[in-house]
Amino acid sequence: MLEWTKENPLVKRIRLWRWFGTSNQMSRNDYVFNDYKSLPRVLLFEPGGSSAEVLLYGGKVVSWKNSQGEELLFMSKKASGRSPKGGISLCFPQLGNMGIMKEISSSKNCVKSLDNIPLRLSPTGNPSSVDLTLKTSPNNLNTWPRSFELRLRVSLGPDKLTIMSHIKNTDSTSFSFTFSLQNYFLVSDISEVRVEGLETLDFLDNLEQGKRFTEQPDAITFDGEVNRVYTRTPGNIAIIDHKKKRTIVIRNEGLPDAELWTPWDNASKAAVSGFGDKDYKTMLSIDSGVLENPITLKPSEEWKGYQELSIISSSYCSGQLDAKTVAFYAKSSKV
User: Fold this and answer.
1) Is residue 188 included in any domain, yes or no?
2) Based on CB atoms within 10 Å of each CB, which residue in 46, 85, 103, 295 is the most buried?
3) Is Transmembrane helix found in the keyword set (predicted)?
4) For position 23, what pLDDT does the model report?
């Protein structure tokens, strides 16, 4: 089993080849790796030392390391096949039972996940970014009979990872959808982590049949199972890991909702979601999405969503995180 959270010796033996695809023209800096599970992936890197790996299947991000080489995303050791659990996944046109489609599933299972769908790779000429495209095909028409184009850009910066999503209606009629970026973060100990930026917000509690509640005016800590969708979230959400002395800031545009999830020690729910029964100890999921109120696009209209993940200096990891500091950092680090 591939060890996702440590440097793997298999990486040294993988075959490096250039991806020409159907368009042929690729930069000499654009490479695709195949690991031992035959999962083609693009390796991104930047001069400061940060790196990321993006699967061509679904545009799933399976690794993001900071300038010190520390892994920031959680990948389950139970992961296998073309849909390894963890990292950052895209869900479209619907996540779970949020949206307009009739299928009902666990809130952490995508009615339409892109993880098993190969995306077309386009050249960027930049080793720190990758462009991927998905257009309507007979396969996805069977699941969702609408014509669309989805474009995804994943970009790497110094201790920063951004994902820009574009969805265009290429159909002759209007359609509606929900969208989510499922982010699984690697933490030292879930009981030692707190989340700031969701205080006093309304949320839908999936453990209470989706009933609406209001969050307390305090940072969120964890001592049991949590499965909530926070609506109309602010621009910044912070994950503060005391043991790692590290804060990750999530900044969004066009993605107003956030799903917060940990199965805790509920082994059956973890198994249903594809995780091991002990994975919860070092994993926290905070999704960025459009969940409560679906987006409706008329023919030729386009929707854009933006997510930026960044790391704040460890000096901000003790005491209450100052919202102005987070806002300033996010603004100054935006590409």
Assistant:
1) yes
2) 85
3) no
4) 29
pLDDT band per the 50, 70, 90 thresholds, residue 144: confident
In sequence order, which residues have a C-beta less than 8 Å from that of residue 80 and are 6 or more positions away? 1, 37
Hey, which residues does 262 pair with through a beta bridge?
Answer: 226
Contact between 56 and 121 (Cβ < 8 Å): yes
Q: Residue 14 is part of which domain span?
A: 9-333
321: domain CATH number is 2.70.98.10
Q: Using the structure block, give the residue that is written with the tokens 């949206």.
A: 99
The CA distance from 83 to 98, in Å, is 21
Cα–Cα distance for residue pair 241/69, rounded to 1 Å: 17
Written as one string, the DSSP assignment of 255-285 is: --EEEEEE-TT-HHHHHHTT--TTGGGGEEE
What pLDDT was estimated at residue 312?
A: 87
Q: What DSSP assignment string belongs to 290-309?
A: EEEEEEEE-TT-EEEEEEEE
Q: Hey, what are 210's tokens? A: 């989706």
pLDDT tens digit string along 233-249? 987 999 999 999 999 99
Q: Is residue 119 part of a domain?
A: yes
Overall domain count for the chain = 1
Classify residue 75 by its DSSP letter: B
Contact indicator for 88, 60 with CB cutoff of 8 Å? yes
Q: Does residue 271 belong to any structural domain of this protein? A: yes
Distance, CA of 250 to CA of 311 (rounded, Å): 9
d(CA 305, CA 185): 20
d(CA 293, CA 98): 9
Cβ–Cβ < 8 Å for 255, 181: yes
The runs of H, that is alpha helices, within the chain are 138-143, 267-272, 323-333
How many CA atoms does the CB half-sphere of 297 hold within 13 Å? 21
Report if residue 2 sits inside a domain.
no
Per residue in 82-96, pLDDT (tens digit) is: 667 899 999 988 755
